[in-house]
User: Fold these one by one.
Assistant:
Number 1:
Amino acid sequence: MSPPKRKRGGQGPADKKAKKVKIVADGGEAPSKSEQEKKNEFTIPAPVSMGKWTNKERVLIFSSRGINFRTRHLMQDLRNIMPHSKADTKMDRKDKLFVVNEVCEIKNCNKCLFFEAKKKQDLYMWISNTPHGPSAKFLVQNIHTLAELKMTGNCLKGSRPLLSFDPKFDKEPQYALLKELFIQTFSTPQYHPKSQPFVDHIFTFTIADNRIWFRNYQIIEEDASLVEIGPRFVLNLIKIFQGSFGGPTLYENPYFQSPNMHRREMRLAAAAKVREKQMVKEMQKMKRTQAKEEVGKDVTADVFLTPAEEKPVYIETEAPEPKVMKKNKHKAFKRQRMQKAQKTKACGE
């Protein structure tokens, strides 16, 4: 049988027996009440922050149009490991980068991770302190997402990370500025509502080959060893600007090489390799022809040849006598000779 229908606006038996929710701060106990009221109530502990969330850092993570699937998965991974992040729709390519400051202001964010795709193969990342700056532009290389790595490590979602930096970050001024920018962007604020009061993974920033290598490790409780979780990527610094997404240039990386120039050098190296192979083939062909010519000539052919006797050289001191040219007598034709022979024969008869 179907359950009885309730009238609109009325309260059913389930509504009458609904339990009341009471939030008790500081883990205290509710005042004593009747047993019936106690059965219909249950207490929920207050939020962890309790108004102590003072460092209200919010990071906006979004991208421009034209990114590939790997960049999309990388953005999602960063949002998962950064509980203080926010997402937004993709920005049109025709819009200028200064529009990002307005988007961050609308989203109430003071930090931004903006991924910019070019030529459907090059990925650039902006890290900016909006709206006053500074900001840094990187070329992102060697991207590996969580789905690709399939690491054995695992950490609690929303837990706060430890940030580990290479000692080189304190030796040069540009890296010191990037260190402070990374600390403010990637570290989860204490008592954030979406964060968990646990520290079980580490973000490492290492400088090698004039690049910044990002890794994410889990801390295993048994022996405090580290297990990589992911994602992982490499940041190749291009420029550091004083403003947000623009302004005067504070630092420009002299070791940076654009992807277009790198691809051009690769093509030139491949072309030089092909030319070298062709030259090697031509040299081998010339050596084969020379070897054939040498084999065709018999070396022992001149062994039994005796040289001719040398004749004494005779020098004529007088001019030679002129030769007498004989005049050729006119010879009659055969028909004329036959006619003449017939005439002489007839005369003789």
Note: The chain is about 30% helix and 25% strand.
Number 2:
Amino acid sequence: MAIISIPSSTTMFPMPQQVSRQNREVVVAEEIGRARMLTINRPNHLNYLSGETALTLGHNFEKYENDANADFVIIKGAGRTFSAGGDLHMFYEGRNTRDSCLEGTYRMYWLCYHIHTYKKPHIALVHGMSVGGGASLMAPMKFSVVTEKAFSSTPEINIGFHPDCGFSYMLPRLPGRLGEYLGLTGEKLRGKEVVAAGLATHFVPSQKLFQLEKRLLSIKSGDEDTIRSVINEFSSNIHIDERSVLNKLSIINECFSKDSVEEIIESFEAEGSRKGNDWILAVLKSLKKASPTALKITLRSIREGRTQTISECLRREFRISMNIQRAITSGDFYEGIRAQIIDKDKSPKWNPSTLDKVHDDQLDLIFKPFEDHDLELQIPINEEEYRWRGKYENSSYSRLRGSVLV
């Protein structure tokens, strides 16, 4: 749910004709042979994910999974970016109305569950930004293709939020303590780094991406080996620059395995004082500017996610997200959006202002299960328990619409 400006060097690749005609649909759905193509279609708004976008994507993923004529699904973004994640203006505008964005949040989490447990092959074609909630649509795909112009991050700590939409499940499953590093620092991975880290499956040069898309659309079946073979034809080998953070894993593993955010920063500072570790200084500066509450929430969430299933992680993340939106211990989320997106002064006033003022009892309130179990995210604990019955329309929130709760 973060926003990062698109570099001026980003280039555009061809779009479907109906998208380039400024189609007003937030998602363009196409049925082409045995393939189904979903294009996030808000190119003038960085393909932000609104509640309507999540609803439309979820509806189509469900439809295609049950369609005997659909063998696989492709998802991409219109224009120069994949997706900048959640629409932060929407959250800020609703800050004074209790649970104004609850429905959109609920639908986004169900969409993530759909994607993680999908029964047919799905493919993400990622060019440009894939950030926060946008990255949550890329990383779980059976096949996720990135170009040299692609970059990915989970920078939610900079707006007083936490890496959500399944990232507390995905981040701790990256190599070593890379997940803690990415979650706590919000640092970007670019192009081949995204593949090398395990957040994408293939690297394809941007000039070949449209050709790959055309070839995929011509496939006559959803056989995974056939899809993989086609993507491999266009893929390039991965060679990581020696300056990449992925070549610093020994330092990252040592520092980001510590028990607390305070200990992580102290250890990282010690490493930064050593010769040849100048790269740490800029990361430390960013780390120290983040919301203290968000940092502690993020570390605890990632650590809990290390031993949990995707369903357990999504349930917990939904709970955290709703409690942050309700500002039960801190208004950092809205202050972060104000500073980064609304006023753009880049000077948020966090409350509490320092890590030592963020206490465990405050965190416990954010992580605490809802007293009414029916208000939890209703997704299966066991995948085969049920498939689609837990959607927003069937939730207690929908039934309580109009009451004091919502």
Note: The CA atoms of residues 265 and 288 lie 8 Å apart.
